[in-house]
Specification:
It is built from 16 helices and 14 strands. α5 (96-109) crosses α6 and α14 (303-314) packs across α15 (322-332). Helices cover 42% and strands 21% of the residues. It starts with 5 loop residues before the first helix and ends with a helix. The chain has helices at 6-13, 21-35, 53-66, 81-85, 96-109, 115-123, 145-159, 199-208, 237-240, 243-249, 253-256, 270-278, 284-294, 303-314, 322-332, 358-362, and strands at 42-46, 76-80, 126-130, 138-139, 142-143, 162-171, 175-184, 189-194, 217-222, 229-234, 259-264, 298-301, 345-348, 351-356. The chain is an alpha/beta fold and 365 residues long.
């Protein structure tokens, strides 16, 4: 399928990312502009741990690598922001980000290609920088020099500089030829992500106090007494966060000004967690099924148990999808060691089966 619009790109990304429709729509537009070589601002992803920041980047890598028409965009790297903060290089040519992009481009070329192909891979690169909130300029009431310097270094790259990079390719029998290519770093797309712990509470306090309090939407839910309704405030960070909040958190105005998109990932719904648990090829349930199958046991889960497991994981919303693994591991504790000795083992049409029920999930609480 050709990528004729952002909707085509969204369809591919949605195959690997669950329950983040709004975020994927925004990301699809930015990536489509990048592919069409239209100048595009960078992307800042804000989301709790386990909401899909890393999954989004892995899916982007997969989409680019599987489409021959997108071969010039396959130079994608993932780094932790702390690596940038620890980078002691004094010039752009030696920066850890450009060096990682250069090494990855050379790996893709495998000694073939020319200087133009190398330049294409470098200038069309995508850099995913995780835990960017860890390089905040302020921690508490004190300036964080390490974070300030890291943001300044990134800002120089993002604003765009012409950098001289070395390019090596095979020549003749066993020989190597080295040349130098000038790279325009402004074409590189940066996707920075972080949990931004504490930002939620900061924004909620601002909105819930004084003149902003009436802006909070409310909904009614069934209380402990089934005949009563309780009023509940409905607050999502994406609806209320402003650039000023992120400045106050510790990202400098100059740095944040280089991001056209600030995307807040929503906390995963129970339905989304259910899908994440069973649908992906490498989902934790499929992994568990393969393990038990190797022991001659068919692992199953009822629909009610799946719903209960997702609801239990959702209570730990700050962990996102990672809470699924925590809950699931508690269910399987002891059973993985000796499934044949488990009282839950059943015989189904001559095959040994282990069925996870709603009661098993409920007994955890």
């Amino acid at each position: 399928m050709k990528l004729n619009s952002p909707t085509d790109l969204y369809a591919r990304l949605a195959e690997g990312v669950i329950d983040q429709r709004t975020a994927l729509e925004q990301i699809s537009v930015s990536l489509f502009k990048h592919i069409r070589r239209i100048r595009v601002g960078n992307i800042l992803l804000i989301g709790n741990s386990g909401t899909g920041k890393t999954t989004i980047m892995r899916t982007i890598e997969k989409v680019f690598s599987e489409d021959p028409d997108l071969s010039r965009y396959t130079n994608t790297i993932r780094l932790n922001a702390n690596i940038v903060a620890d980078d002691d290089s004094l010039d752009l040519e030696g920066s850890v980000i450009l060096e990682r992009l250069r090494q990855n481009a050379l790996r893709i070329l495998a000694g073939k290609g020319d200087a133009q192909r190398f330049r294409d891979l470098m200038e069309n690169g995508v850099v995913f920088l995780d835990e960017v909130d860890k390089i905040r300029a302020v921690i508490g009431d004190k300036a964080n020099t390490r974070g300030i310097l890291a943001q300044e270094a990134l800002l120089t790259l993002i604003e765009g500089e012409r950098v001289r990079m070395s390019f090596t390719r095979k020549k003749g029998e066993g020989g190597l030829e080295q040349s130098f290519v000038h790279i325009d770093t402004s074409r590189i797309l940066f996707i920075c992500g972080g949990a931004f712990e504490g930002l939620y509470d900061m924004v909620y306090h601002r909105v819930a106090s004084g003149e902003h309090k009436d802006k909070l939407s409310r909904e009614y839910v069934v209380g402990d007494n089934q005949d009563s309704l309780e009023e509940k405030e409905h607050f999502t960070l994406g609806d209320y966060v402003r650039y000023e909040d992120i400045f106050a958190y510790g990202m400098t105005p100059q740095f944040l000004g280089r991001f056209d998109e600030v995307i807040v990932l929503n906390d995963l719904t129970a339905t989304g967690l259910m899908r994440i648990f069973v649908e992906p090829k490498d989902s934790m349930f499929r992994e568990a099924k393969r393990y038990f199958r190797s022991l001659g046991v068919d692992l199953q889960i009822t629909r009610d148990a799946l719903k209960a497991l997702a609801e239990a994981a959702q209570e730990n919303h700050r962990l996102g999808a990672r809470a699924l693994r925590m809950v699931f591991k508690r269910i399987l504790r002891g059973i993985e060691f000796d499934p044949h000795g488990s009282y839950m083992l059943q015989e189904q049409e001559g095959q040994k089966a282990l069925v996870i029920t709603r009661d098993m999930v409920r007994n955890l609480s």
